[in-house]
Amino acid sequence: MNSPRTIVLLLIALLVFCFGVAAHLTPQFQTWRGSRAGGDIFNVVLGDSRRMFAQSFFVKADAYYHSGYYPTMFDNKEAFQTQHMAADTGAVSDKNHGDEESFLGPTRNWIDAFGRHFFPDRHTHLDEGGAGGDLSGSENVREILPWLKLSANLDPDNPQAYTVTAFWLRERMHRTAEAEAFLHEGLRNNPDSYDILFELGRLYYEGYHDAQRARNVWELAVRKWLALAPEDQKENKLIFEQITTRLAQLEADAGNVPRAIDWYHAAQKVSLTPDAIQQRIDELSKKISAKQP
Amino acid sequence: MSVILKTHKLRVEFRSREMRQGVKVALNGLDLEVRAGEVFGFLGPNGAGKTTTMNVLLGFVPPTSGEASLFGIDVRQPIARQRIGYLPELTYYYKFLTAEELLRFYGKIFGLTRAEMDQRIPRLLKLVELEHASKRPIRSYSKGMQQRAGLAQALINNPDLLILDEPTSGLDPLGRMKVREIIQRLKNEGKTVFFSSHELGEVEAICDRVAIIHQGELKVVGRVDEIKKAHHSNLEQAFLEVIGYQPQTTP
Amino acid sequence: MKNIFAVAGVVIKELYRRKDFYVLFIVTILICLVMASVNIFNDSKIARYLKEICLLLVWISSLVIAVTTTARQIPAERENRTLLPLLAKPITRMQLVFGKFLGCWVACGLTLLCFYIFFGALSATREHQWPVLNYFQAGVMQWFMLGIVVAMSLLGSLVFAAPSSNSTICFIVIGGILFVGRHLDQVATSMHEPLRAVVNALYYIVPHLEFYDLRDLIIHNWPLIEWKYILLALLYATAYIATFLLGACLVFRRKPVN
Asked: How many CB atoms lie within 10 A of CB A123?
């Protein structure tokens, strides 16, 4: 047993045994539902708990949007219930109210008053230049992108991470191709997401000026929305109104006025401001009657 | 010869929560005198109070009562330690320093100038036979080399009194011999050496006078040959007799 | 002072001869370089996430170095018995405590300098600017914060028996202060007496380390903080450093050397 030859032979035998067991187990492990091996690094390290961090990084992106001027869990968050960088894309309903400037409230004591000198102290938005205000203008918004990408990687089932990222990529960074690729990635993970389809339609319409592809994508988004359960539809009225309004606009621009009126009627059913939509319908109806001899 | 180390009715008591018995008397009325230029051996079994005496002399432990002085200065004054060198038992010096850096560090504490250190350190390293290893980190030293580096640090201030706590403890015969030679050389240079040891042969070889302490009390003090004569035996047997050791006789 | 400097010199030598700093520095560089190589929508100008990660690593590394280096100083002297020959020399215990503090603090300052030079170089590659004064403010504030941490760990090393328990307690306290120290008074309002009074008292007693965290300001290129507030914060830190050091001296004075 003590001779080196025996030890080497024993080592070889153990290695052969390990190799054999591994070869036998690998196929089973690959088909096992709990296996993390096939996923990305976050999946391997965090498993499903990674989704918990995704929202934190989404909020982190919003904190970056404000150049670090952001409430903590102890501050008044009424004006920050919806992330501003998401609300500013126009695709998310904004639940914020109250004063954005004074989430810290009045100073509580001398320690609090003194401490405020060492934190960011002005409400800014990165797309307007950020804290310095003298860098590269609105393109500063690029700084939120790593956190949004990370958030999407951690929770690929959250469509908002894709739509918000794509909006800023397209709108401020003028990186339409990257935005499109990211939305497609989001669509692969969330094939039924009307949010992503809506943003993709906007990208086609505003970025590539491709009305036909935009129409197709938006109409698909409408079908996906209509497939929702009634209670889910109630909660997601805003996006439906936005999709149908954009479709109506697209049709009106293309000269399909009756079709445009149909879409406005659809939007009117869910809108909080039906009168404004009625006004548009009336305008289009007048156009039709003016054309008729 | 002038007295440079003196204790008078020195008593040390320890109170500790860990000691259920309450108060432990570590030293009880210890009277000692060490004169300039002599090598003084401080003997006693484990727990006799040797290290406590040294701790009092070095200012680590305050005496409960009585007095202790070095060069006529109360040991509680830091200045009393200006002219002494101390080698504790089994010390592991800063592993990341070289012997030379170690000596420079201690030299700075004694307020030596750079020129003084440049002159003194090579001499000390030669004395303790570490000049070849002076640039090597202490972590690479053997136990004997570390002990000799300790001796060098004890001599950095060119002390008049050396207090050595079991300087040969844990060393091999060669290491012990080297340390003994160094002590002998220091004696020849006129230094006063106060040291504790369990190696009675070594004490017999190099000490002018010895004191035997047992259970915190001084039992015997005097010249080695006088003690041997008084007990009609060698130092080891005299020591055993003084501490009251009764050998078990087999029937 | 010569004694204090002599002791401090040995501590500094220890830091640069041990591997701790180099490991943390290399790990920081590697992580930052890996993060810098990540392609984010083909945009090479994105800088702030990189600054954030780098500064986070700098903060973690410097805290680890400060706490672990300080926590082992006096216990190691006792364990290796080097305290005996040291205190047998004309040095007071107070000088030893101050020397240990100074050494650890200066060592932390040197590591911070290395980290900040790397941070500056890294952010300059992306932002093409070098706001030296902002970095100076952030670096000095962090250094004084580490001064409080070092003094606290030194006191802890005399109170707690094992360096590991001291380090753990220090990390928990520091983390707690950095995360909720600023809001302790708000936390107290949701509590009942007497806990409320205790938490409120804690709010006023603990050193507010969060003042010294200027990361957000340099990540997001905020303008400089007014120097008078920086000076006040440094004075505040100095007061806490002095308090902890005096506490350490008091405890050490009563401590047996072996």
From this structure: 16
